[in-house]
Amino acid sequence: MRSFLGRDILSLKDFERAEFFRIFEVADELAPIARNRRNCDLLKEKTLVAAFYQPSTRTRLAHEAAMHRLGGHVCGFADPKMTRAGDFYQESIKDTVHMLEYYGDVIVMRHFQQGAPHEAAKWASIPVINAGDGWGEHPTQVLTDLYTVLKEKGTLDGLTFLCIGDMRMRTMHSISYAMSQFDSKLIYVSPPNMSLLPEFKAELDQYNIQYKEADHVADVIHEADVIYMEPVVQPDYTASRQEKADKYDLTPSNYKVTRELLAQKAKSDAIILHSLPRMDELPTDVDITRHARYWQEAFNGVVMRMALLALILGAME
Ligand code: CP
What we know:
- The chain is an alpha/beta fold.
- It folds into two domains: 17-136 and 301-312, 3-Layer(aba) Sandwich (Rossmann fold); 139-297, Aspartate/ornithine carbamoyltransferase (Rossmann fold), CATH 3.40.50.1370.
- The chain has ten helices and nine strands.
- The strands form two sheets. Strands 7-6-5-8-9 form a five-stranded parallel sheet. Strands 2-1-3-4 form a four-stranded parallel sheet, sandwiched between helices.
- Strand 8, helix 9 (259-265) and strand 9 form a beta-alpha-beta unit.
- The chain is globular.
- Phosphoric acid mono(formamide)ester (CP) binds next to helix 2.
């Protein structure tokens, strides 16, 4: 297994099975710190720089919370409009990260351009974590998802993941790449204009990933151990920011998971993950069912990022 020390986390495409489990093992080890709402001093000499060019609630704050739990420091920006990258100068990623690399020891970057964190990693002398890049990938979200599945199901093999939503979405790419390392199957349900792109399907075949597509969630939900959801009513992820329109579409029933559908057709132990935020595809009355696991993800997301930061910054091996 490769060392995590000083490593960029840009994609799950190049992650090996043992590397997933090492992160999850360290997450288990560090979890009591977060569970007891304590901070320790494991990373007291390190600083995280958050460079968020797109809005975020969970990803930025979970990284920052993880750093605080480990006794580290945090600086950065959550709105590029207040930086020189977002004003008249439109400062380049290269020039920006040449600055940021002196302000801390790891950069966590979210960007509306696919590949922006990869560009940053080319120029930065410190590790870069991809916190979501356009339609590209969202590796730390999917590490959180898989850690949650492991905690809930005790395994990442022999499962069927039902992926519902926009298949151009970065989480869908990362979870699909991750499945190359596990003996589990994927079922994709998406609107035709948001379905798997031919080039992505070719990649899935190349990685020998077992998958099929379906038109309606009701036809396949009975097969699912993990119901993995994203909205189909959503902003343009290649834009820096998009305000909510006065009028927007409702989610067709093909891509919705309701309490009634779960009661009628889902396995009794199926779990639902949603990276959030949500629209109407996941009504709030599902929250009180035994299937919901998206709130547990809030805790797991901090713990998993504690593990990742501890490994990358050399506090754990
Ligand atoms: N899951 C996720 O990426 O949420 P945020 O956009 O709030 O970071």
